[in-house]
Structure formats: structure tokens, C-alpha cells
Design a protein that fits this description.
This protein has 17 helices and 15 strands. It has about 500 residues and is of the alpha/beta class.
Length: about 500
Amino acid sequence: MHFNIKNIVNKTDLSAQNSGQNIYLNLYSSIKKAIVTGVLKEPMKLPPSRVLAKDLGISRSTVMKAYDLLILEKHLKSVTGSGYYIIENHKQETLPIHKIAQGSYPKLSKRGKSFMKGVQLKTKKLQNGIAFRPGLPPLDIFPVRQWQNLKNEYWRTIRYSELSYSSPTGIQSLKENIANYLKTYRNIHCNIDQIIITTGSLHSLYLVSNALLNANDEVVIENPTYPYAYRLFKSLNASIHSVNVDNQGMCIDDATCLKPKLIYTTPSNQHPTGIKMSSKRRGDLLKWASQKNCFIVEDDYDHEFSNWENPVPPLYSQDKQQRVIYLGSFNKILHPSIRLGYMVVPNYLLEVLTVMFEYSNRFVPPSLQKTLSTFIEKDYLNRHLRNTIKISAERKKIFSTNFVEHFDNQIILDSNNKGLNLIGHLKKGIDDQKLAEYLNNIGVSTYPLSNYFHEGIKKKGLVMGYCSVNERRIKDTIHKMAKEYKNFLNA
């Protein structure tokens, strides 16, 4: 591939052609400067001499002379039958950066500042590797070729009219297939018009929160809970009230004096503890939401993993007043990079959420939606899901056995969690934040358990995913992790 470099070349120098100056030297100087300053980098390909001559309105021989000089100085190389390529065999120069006077830009909005503060970008570090990053399915067994074939088929049969704008709530075929999927796997019966296709649960929660919450509106969340949900509500300047989680789930008795507008919960598999909300507690929560005239956001992010053997009906299926906003995702079932989720919303919120989606993302790419829709229709999703559940169970056993063997009660593993994560509880006095950072630096990804708590005593531990990599990698990584843990303690 070669680029149009008209914006890089100094047009003023080239216009000197009429004054008798050497145009090829000016062209040579412009391209050389772009290479030396890093604007053009190896292995970029320059346009063929014929193409560049036409672009700049000069003769081809002029371009050839400039290219020859650049080759002579080893800024370019000529590959027979291919073209001219940049060579970085020199120290790049840095162009001076002009200082911008303070106050030359308008101030950020209060909401913008709030989001910058809430997300904590300065302290957020990229995770090194995928073992043992929480929330990841078995990535290595995803049927890539099947998916690619379906995608290719879409583009082979596409009509030009389908390249135009699409519905913000999603294409009809995918919504129909998701509705049927929800009936089978989650005992949810809904009208397809209530389904909105998003890029995932966090995207869905962002839309819902912005549609409902003003500053200082009360929101009730679990403690511990999904950190991104907490930070989203905090960034919207909501008044957040955390309630504890016991062996039956969310303790709503701790919040009876509140008047929330929104309740956020993960009842099928509480995040990150894995506790399932009891039937009684579910009924109490729905009754309480009715009395308080508020909505419940039910985030059912990994329902299949946590409810395969003994499925528990979601809150949504028990809701008789359309108070539950149901969030689901294919990012946990397939893989996170697919960025496809959905929400089932009460009719009351359908219009405002559609409008908000249209004025932000517009719509999820139809090619992606259609590929997933066909993936479901051809029963590929069902087959992949069964394989995923099987492999995950096998890897959980391998992970647990090896972890207990290597750590010998130095870190106490809680293997009762039915979802994608396991928790390793640390002994008193060990900082899980520092330990997680230490492990990340040597290529082992874990999350500190204390990050999930926002009030009261913050328990210390590691939240770990167990199934994203194969058996050999699990064993090798645990061995490495145990060795480095001893080094951490002795540091």
C-alpha cells in the first residue's frame, strides 16, 4: 500500500519550478525531512514515481531524481517489482513543540471532569497477558473459521442498499434469534421490540444511567460489586449507597430508608463472590422496588456459566410490573473483542434509550449483527456453548488442583464460584493491590479483591480467571505465580 503524500511535500518549493530552481532537490528535501522527523516511517511504501508525478503535477524524471538521492543516502530502498520503501537507519529528530498558553481552550464540562476522576485513568494499568485475567472464556476454542466463513458469506451476498444506515435498536433477525435464545437458556419471554443491541453490558448500563439519573439521584449497589458500574454511577454524580452481600445475596434491609431511582444487582452470579440471590430475596427486592417506585438493573453477564447445571430464573422473568432492565452479553460467551451485547427494557424506557443510542453510537455494525444472527441460526452458538462449558469445567478442576498444591494454604482458594472467576483469599497484612501489580509486572493478570469493595471492611484477595488458557499454560503460570509470590513476600 502507498499513500498520497501531497500534504507532506512543500508545495511552495515545488511551485518554484517556474523560477528555474531544482525541483527534485526540493522534493528530496521534503521527503527526507518527513522521514527524519518520523512522519514517514519504516516500512511505509512511497507512491510509484508515475503516481507521485501525477499527484504533484511534475515530471516523472524529477521524482526519479529525488528518489535516487534518497536511496543513495539510505533513506529509501528500491525493491524490484514492488516499489520504494522507507528505511529508518538514522536517529529521528524531534520537531519543536510550541507551548500553548493556558486558557486557550474552553474548560471541560462538570460531567467530563467527573468521568476523568471516576475512571482513574492515571492509575489504570494495562494487564499483561490473559492468564489469569478475570472474566475471560476459553478464548482458544472459539470457532474462528466458522465465524469468518459466515462473515465472508455476508459480504458476498450484501446488497448495496444494506450499506446505508441501520436501526439503532438492532437488526430484526438478530433480535428474533436473541428472543428465542433467551426463552431457551434464561426462561425470559419478551417482545422483540424490547430488545436493544449494544456493544456489551457496560454500554447498556451507560445508556440506562444517562437516561434516568440526575446529579444526586440515589443508586443502590451491592458491596462488593463490579468496579466499572460503581465508577460510572460516581462519574454521573449519583448518590451511591452500597449494601452488603450475605449468603442469600443483596441485603436490601440495609437500604429500607432510601428512596433510590435505580438498583444495580448481579443476582444470578454475584460479582465477584459468585453468590446466587435466594428466591425469597428476589421476591423481596421486586416488592421493595415497587414500593420505592424505582428500576432494577439486572446484569446477567455470565448466566450460562453459573446456571448450566441448576438454572435459576432471572429477576426479569419474575417481574410483573416492568421494573427490571435486563442486561446480557455475548462478550463472555464468545470473546470480549466481539463487542456485542443486548438489553431487554421496559416499554416506558424504550423510546428514550433508542434516541440516546441514535445520538451516540448510532448502531452496532450490521455486518457483525448479521454474522452473529446466522451463527445462532445454524446452531453454532449452541454447540460452541456446550463445548465452552465442558472445557471451562475441566480447566477449573485443573486450576483448583494445581493452585492448592502450589500455594499450600498460603492463599486460600474459594472454588465455590460457578462463574468465570475464582477468589484467592490472602492472609492478614498482605496488600492485594501491591501483589496484583507485582504479578502483572511479571505477566500474570489478576485483580485485587479490595477494588470491588466501596464501603466498610475491604477484604483482601485475588480475583482470578481460570479458563482462558489451556492446561499446559495453567500449570506453568501457577508454578510461576507461586514462585514469584514467595519473592514478593521476601521483598
